[in-house]
Amino acid sequence: MTIRDILNQDKITISFEVFPPKAGLPLDSVMACTRRIAKLKPDFCSVTYGAGGGTSKNTVAIADQVQNELGLTALAHFTGIASTRETVKEKCAELKSKGIQNVLALRGDMPNEEGFVPKKDFPHASDLMAEIKSQGDFCIGGACYPEGHVESEDKHHDIKTLKIKQDAGADFLISQMFFDNNIFYNFMYRLRDAGVTLPVLPGIMPLTNYKQIAHIKRISGTNLPAQLLAIADKFHNDPMAMEQAGIVFAANQIIDLIANGIKGIHLYTMNKPQIVEGIMSNLDRIFTGSNPDA
Ligand code: FAD
């Protein structure tokens, strides 16, 4: 099924993101994670793509498992930074051969790989989207950034590039993580004002250990609300309490989004099924058979 059709249904959707193992490590643990979270019946499951060498070949293998073994809809991520027109053609043929119709088309970041030279065919994600569209009837998603992409000159420019993604054939957008829902609501107003009508799935990242929070605080401009910082301060020496608090924070964030009319949630699972189960155990009634307009 295409994600376009899934998002057109009269229900609130939940989807999960998993990532392939690091280069050289076996696929088994990710396959086991995917099997476990599949029991929670997500509307679709996305699989990230390592822009450099090693891990990228596993994306299709995991997406194949999601779709053809577990019977879920798969969304395969794909990046332009490491691709030529020829590799896109090959990738599209491979996806078609597995019956995978959904692709999240990204530019990608420079991989942490010595000697890597970015390819020139697809300078922006929208260029890759147009190429994938020309390869068949794919349903295409793109990334968006409620707090602005780090390289964007300003938020206005950032929103304009999302209109370019829409015009290039994107069917939906998935957002970068954020922890303050007001930032997302403000982003949605600006997006609609700029004529971007695509469905947008907010990306929710559960923060369940102190290192993760310290890392985000250090390296990204992501706004961390006082409530999350207080949780980190209070529980940083108690990993189990930190995990519980992170699960509840993420569940509350999701409830608030849905209460404010958002119809689809994308959860970054970090390949930790117990955290996904913890969050979903608080939300089962919200996602089963719900009618957003009821
Ligand atoms: P683009 O849309 O090309 O944007 C990159 C920059 O260029 C932005 O500043 C944008 O404003 C600007 N820009 C875009 N289009 C134009 C244009 N036409 N003219 C001028 N400027 C333009 N990375 C991976 O390597 N693998 C993954 O699997 C992966 N999955 C992700 C999933 C989600 C939901 C998100 C939010 C990000 C993901 N990323 C992934 C990270 C992503 O690749 C990086 O954030 C990357 O820096 C930008 O990718 P993009 O597709 O948003 O690029």
Structure report:
The protein has a single domain, classed as Alpha-Beta Barrel (TIM Barrel). 46% of the residues lie in helices and 15% in strands. Helix 9 runs antiparallel to helix 10 and helix 10 crosses helix 11. The mean pLDDT is 93. Bound molecules: flavin-adenine dinucleotide.
Q: Please count the beta strands (DSSP E, at least 2 residues each).
A: 8
Shape: globular
Give the N-to-C terminal Cα separation.
Answer: 25 Å
Low-confidence stretches: none
How many helices? The count is 12
Which fold name fills CATH's third level, the topology?
TIM Barrel
Strand order of the largest sheet: 1-2-3-4-5-6-7-8
Main β sheet profile: 8 strands, parallel, barrel
Total of domains: 1
Helix content: 40-55%
Overall CATH architecture: Alpha-Beta Barrel
**Radius of gyration over all CA atoms, rounded:** 18 Å
